[in-house]
Amino acid sequence: MFEMFVPRRPTAYAADASQLPADPMPEIALSPAGAAARVVECHSQDAGVHASQLPGWTLRTEQFSAGRFSGHLTLLRLDHVQVIRERTSQALMKQGMAWPGALIFSLPMAASGDAYFNGHILPFPCPLFSDGADLPPLMTPKYCDVVNLVMDRQWLAGYFNDVGERGLADDLVATRYLRINVSADGIAAMQRGITDVFEVCGRTHVFDFAESRNELENLLLRFVADALTSERSLSMVGMTSQKQVADRAFGYALSRRETPPRVDDLCRHVGVSRRNLQICFQEAFGVSPSQYLRFARLNAVRRELIACAATGRRVSIGDVAASWGFWHWSRFAGNYRDLFGELPSQTLQNNHSSCLRGFARAVSTG
């Protein structure tokens, strides 16, 4: 279906020639993707657990829409590229890192709405390049199906340099975040190709063979090259002033976790009106200040409950809730159930049971 091409192996590339290694064709030590080549499927029912299943990543993921969470990850490890397909059933706030030197090309496959990245709206299905060493907050829509191609920045820049795209190579070395406006036909072609790749992954073990992995990497590089070299506009995605105001307000709220400030307190602290603060949060995250703070605090309670269940430590749910400013028990329990689809006591019980099952499996196989 797709015309394959076989590029030369890229040399290591640097904007400054003095940074190049002495050997012009070194074996490049890349990301954890080079450690193995296999397909892994992961399912989860908690946003935090979902994030922890990404190998080599450090990611905090919080649920920001109401209902039970369901997450599905398909990971394909190639020699130079980590391919991740992520399907989630609730809006998530995500922030963290992949690994130093990583560059991530994200292609939305399906979504129930737009995303928010670093204070900008990312209209579906806008592709995005981002620095894997520092991922700013990303708010996903309630349903999201996205494919991430994770590559070593220098390796990818070396490829573009070898094929005569020195300008793109320079951009990739220097740029942290790029929003790419690709034609509808171009995006549809990439989505069809990615769909074919994952259909093959689900049926066979063809990617245990080096030749197949090489062909797939060539195809994926073609997608990236087409996105960057087509008639399109690339826009930098730096942090907006609205995002800066929202971050200052949120940081102040976290510093007073046991006595959460009111919206008026936040306005006085950051020096803006209530209306302006509302606009800042809506434009940066798509939610109001009060919603954002309530969701963040509920997620913090959930993390503590899951951590206690994992270690078997006895804990008072009321004490954990109060430490995050929830003093009205029935109102807290209702808000918690509305957001996560279960009561806090069920969170403790479910995660404690999961730990016991894991311990039993370890004993039986030990």
Q: What is the H/E order?
A: EHEEEEEEEEEEHHEHHEHHHHHHH
Number of strands: 13
| Main beta sheet strand tally, sense and closure | 8 strands, antiparallel
CATH top level assignment of the largest domain: Mainly Beta
Question: CATH H-level name of the largest domain... which superfamily?
Answer: Jelly Rolls
The main sheet orders its strands as 1-3-4-11-6-9-12-13
Mean of all residue-level pLDDT scores:
82
Determine the N-to-C terminus distance.
47 Å
The helix/strand class is alpha+beta
Protein name: HTH araC/xylS-type domain-containing protein
Organism: Bradyrhizobium betae
GO molecular function, one term: sequence-specific DNA binding
Keywords: Transcription, Transcription regulation
